[in-house]
Amino acid sequence: MIDKLVEKIKKTNAPIVVGLDPMLSYIPEHIQKKAFQEKGETLEGAAEAIWQFNKGIVDAVYDLIPAVKPQIAMYEQFGIPGLMAFKKTIDYCHEKDLVVIGDVKRGDIGSTSAAYASGHIGTVAVGSRTFHPFGEDFITVNPYLGTDGIKPFTDVCKEEKKGLFILVKTSNPSSGEFQDRLIDGRPLYEHVGEMVAQWGADCMGESYSYVGAVAGATYPEMGRILRKIMPKSYILVPGYGAQGGRGADLVHFFNEDGLGAIVNSSRGIIAAYKQEAYAKFGPEHFGEASRAAVEDMKKDINEALH
Amino acid sequence: MIDKLVEKIKKTNAPIVVGLDPMLSYIPEHIQKKAFQEKGETLEGAAEAIWQFNKGIVDAVYDLIPAVKPQIAMYEQFGIPGLMAFKKTIDYCHEKDLVVIGDVKRGDIGSTSAAYASGHIGTVAVGSRTFHPFGEDFITVNPYLGTDGIKPFTDVCKEEKKGLFILVKTSNPSSGEFQDRLIDGRPLYEHVGEMVAQWGADCMGESYSYVGAVAGATYPEMGRILRKIMPKSYILVPGYGAQGGRGADLVHFFNEDGLGAIVNSSRGIIAAYKQEAYAKFGPEHFGEASRAAVEDMKKDINEALH
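^ inputs. structure came back:
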């Protein structure tokens, strides 16, 4: 799947992933109203609004981008109906031939990580049959529990040709509280980065590993160091746009081949119609606003890279 | 909710939580067969088997214990039907007046943690209405992202009188890879433990904080240190039984008031009928085997404590 991701990035010339993180407040009123008329002001109604919103965005941008990243929390908060919209979104994005990165940040002791891996990127057996319950192509994983919490995920990646992005240096303001603390003179995130490189070494695709990392655009200098520590790991870079990261900050996350990183924007794309720059589209044309925002992001990043 | 948990622990004289982590391989064949006859060898069939198994165990042990801890991964691996069994299990345990600890190990940047908090221990608004989507009483949380990833959870705890157990020192063999690394001369888990004490300081119930910690029975000496660092935090102790922890190892996790810790056993209780000690019950009477295992665990812990 890393090979497909790289190929699609080259083809679209867009190292961009659109974060499908639909807060109800991002969803235009006409969509919410219609969904609530059909399904009531219920969890099902919220899920329907989310699904219609996602569909509108995916239909508007799918040919410009290689991948989407639905953040499962935004669906899980609406319980079972929300998770049904998560699954429906994954399936629809696959129909559009998009690579789907499930931003699930799971991670636990071995047997439990194995269950998460089965559910999200692998298969589960029931009697004589097997199923792909959620069916993402990549998922994000938390490294706090160490190797035996990660191995069940890499095992499934090898079998299924799926991939991971492991949290190394997150984009949020307090990420440094633990991640930046010095161990033997170097911050924890560097040690985690080294382990990511190790975990990924025997999970190689053509030029990059199935095992990637997450490092926030909000910390570009740290990205530069991590790029060297994990030369074969793709870096998923959140924090661009709404969280403060800019195109020029992103250069360090890429390798000299112009590859090696994929930059996420969520709010900046999916709620573009709410920004002054794209207000002219209006809520009725939120998809077109998202498309314009993707094109601007692509330009911003490509200008910084070249 | 911490007050209810403490009260129920005193009343049952059992600082025990039963981990409802149903692997299909633990579920007696007659239950699987019936479920597959009704719903097919499908995710729905697996979910039905899990639910019937859980119900059998809860019915057999609910009067002996204060709390249960369903591990969401074991449900999530069966997709949407699995998660419906998770929710059904939570609701049934509430009917039996059990405290429900959702072992979800979520944790993300602020806005995302807020969504997880809403979905699991809080409420979510849809139009003019609000819902409690999953409705656990406590959840487990991963601290890797620092304070702004934790605060949305503690905010919801204050509003809803719910609680957290934050991962500090996990029970798995490789937990030390990052958690034991020395920072300013002390292991990372001690620093995390100090933050747990801080986060919990303004979330106090009568005698303990809503904000607890996870520390594995497999590392009793570390439990002793953590007990002192976080005197007001309840410690959820996994790793007893099948993972190797024994009653005598648990003493350090408790305070002098005999409180302050709650010990989880999953496989050791729910798959008791598969162990030699309880084989006499047979798969048909798996619930009675679990009841006997709870009684033995209670005896083992209380002998160690007194």
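The domain at 2-305 of chain A is CATH 3.20.20.70 (TIM Barrel). The mean pLDDT of chain A is 96.
thumbs up if we can close this ticket
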